[in-house]
Amino acid sequence: MLNIGVIGVGEIGKMHIEKITSRISNARIIRINDTNESYAISVAKKYGAEIEKDPHALIAANDVDAVIITCWDQYHEEFTLAAINEKKPVFCEKPLSNTADACMRIMNAEMESGKRVLTVGFMRRFDKSYISLKETIESGEIGEPLLIHAQHRNVAPLGDLRFTTEMSISNSLAHEFDVTRWLINEEYESIQFIEPKRTRNVNYDYSDPQMAILRTKSGVHIDFEVFLNARYGYDIQCEVVGEEGTARLQDSNRSVTLRRNGLCSQSVYSNWKERFEEAYDNELRQWVDGVLAGEAIGPNAWDGYVAASVAESCIKSRLERRTVKLDYINCPKFYEKSKK
Ligand code: NAP
């Protein structure tokens, strides 16, 4: 049985706790921490976990075997470093951090410790439809990939959270930056940010939608769209154009296509929890099984560093209105063997 401590029990923290409690038989949540006292109290009560007021005490606690970090991005570095220091397996939600420098410090600390303990929550790698798209590309059926069109649309960011232009890049596009290089097994060369006309459905200074064009080292061009106030639904798409054909991400929508009253319709997901429900399940189950078997599986600190570094360059491209050459370091040997 794996005893887990969780730091941050907001939207995704609660979801992970519920999944572990109800669907994963070889793990349980024993301690939680959150700066939001009312969240902490209600989660502790519901799941019978103890509240630990000091997150560092939670990480160091003798009865905590592994840690999940689901608080906000800017605290990920502090807590992952503390877990690495304790040599405890740690699952940290994406982005690993907002800055490439912070990710580099995390990578260096893990490499110095000599043991991989960190997994980053890029859960799309555990999604059936992405896995099947990757298998199709690798089968060679569509020939060499030449172009990718990727789209990330949401109804609106959660609650009263005020998403900033930079957060669309470092927090949301980060998923795209990670999953695409994983899909085609290639590294990026340059990025260009594009700022289209803004939606009138946002009443503060926030650029939405946004686009970015990435070029890989072999010359594949990828256009990413992120539109977080798209209103109509949560809609993730990806199409890979190859020399011999194209492959499109299956929208694993379970609803039927309805033809009625002169209309043909199909429902669209309303949020990320629905769309990636199974991916989150698979990600957590494999993480728990990996930890119990003594290995850290899934996206690693280097993957977190690459996404943060690409996001930084994307923000630079926006500010300087030019294409920016990417300068992230090659994969350290330490992480090569743990590529998923
Ligand atoms: P959220 O609902 O705001 O929850 C975050 C919780 O962490 C809040 O209760 C917050 O308390 C608490 N917190 C903030 N700073 C803390 C600290 N220093 N120590 C302990 N607790 C702290 O946010 P969320 O949507 O769950 O997102 C959390 C993280 O998960 C983010 O990094 C986000 O990018 C990631 N995420 C990933 C996915 C995915 O698809 N993989 C999806 C959603 C979110 P306060 O209310 O006091 O700030």
Features of this protein?
340 residues; alpha/beta; 7-stranded mixed beta sheet; 38% helix
**Strand order, sheet with most strands:** 12-11-7-10-9-8-15
Ends: how far apart? 25 Å
Integer average pLDDT: 95
Order of helices and strands: EHEHEHEHEHEHEHEEEEEEEHHHEH
Hetero ligands? NADP nicotinamide-adenine-dinucleotide phosphate
The helix count comes to 11
* Count of DSSP strands: 15
Helix content: 25-40%
Radius of gyration: 20 Å
Shape: globular
Oligomeric state of the chains?
Answer: single chain
Low-confidence sequence ranges: none
Strand and helix layout:
Blueprint: E1 2-7, H1 11-23, E2 27-33, H2 37-47, E3 50-51, H3 55-60, E4 66-69, H4 76-85, E5 90-92, H5 100-113, E6 118-120, H6 128-139, E7 145-153, H7 165-184, E8 188-194, E9 210-216, E10 221-227, E11 235-242, E12 246-248, E13 258-260, E14 263-265, H8 272-275, H9 277-292, H10 301-320, E15 324-325, H11 333-336
Helix pairs in contact: 1-9, 4-5, 5-10, 6-7, 7-10
The structure holds NADP nicotinamide-adenine-dinucleotide phosphate.
Can you describe what's shown?
This protein is of the alpha/beta class. The protein contains 11 helices and 15 strands. It has helices at 11-23, 37-47, 55-60, 76-85, 100-113, 128-139, 165-184, 272-275, 277-292, 301-320, 333-336; strands at residues 2-7, 27-33, 50-51, 66-69, 90-92, 118-120, 145-153, 188-194, 210-216, 221-227, 235-242, 246-248, 258-260, 263-265, 324-325. Helix 4 packs parallel to helix 5 (100-113), helix 6 (128-139) packs across helix 7 and helix 7 crosses helix 10. The protein starts with a strand and ends with a helix. The model has no long low-confidence stretch (mean pLDDT 95). NADP nicotinamide-adenine-dinucleotide phosphate (NAP) binds next to helix 1.
